[in-house]
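Hey, resending since the last one bounced:
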Amino acid sequence: MKLIVSEEIRERCPQFVGAAVVADVVNSDCNDGLWNEIHEFLDDYRQRYTVDSVKHMPPIEVTREAYRRCGKDPSRYRPSSEALIRRTLKGHELYRVSTLVDLINLASIAYGYSIGGFDADRIQGDTLTLGIGREGEPYEGIGRGPLNIAGLPVYRDEEGGIGTPTSDNERTKLQPESTRLLAIVNGYDGDRTNVTSCAKYIQQLLVKYANSDGGRIIEF
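The structure tokens again:
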């Protein structure tokens, strides 16, 4: 899989850095060990942050600025990391989706980055290009229906858009039967060290909770 950052993104978001993790995995409906770790993490997290401070967290603040530079209002289309963190700090339980989605959500909250999580076998072709959404471009957000992605950063495969920082696409979403994961950490803050740490954290969670027998985990 080749990952390309387009010139239109480089012009508007020159600091962007990303990291991708590809892994052979075993998904499950719910992993008790993972959820124990999530609850312990969130108990501590709520002691350190408030809803009012969310948008000033560096990864979120800069992602919101990237939205503005690309032509989208971040108050109307929140980055997924911000939405997750706001939900957490309001005292709501995180949605339980599947082990792969749940651990990606944990990493997103821990580091503040919007993270795309895809079933790699559903991606068309061998190249993903990060560009900017266009007016009228078809896109079905997971659990959201048709989503206006004009002005949003978007990863496209041969068929069209599969991921934005607000929502991934139904077409390539992780399924209970998914066996190959592609996770992309989007660092619009340019903090290569932190982005790499986030990718390594995802790797650690995969080894603990979703590793297949003899599975391999490769970081780009």
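The chain has a mean pLDDT of 94.

Sorry for the duplicate.
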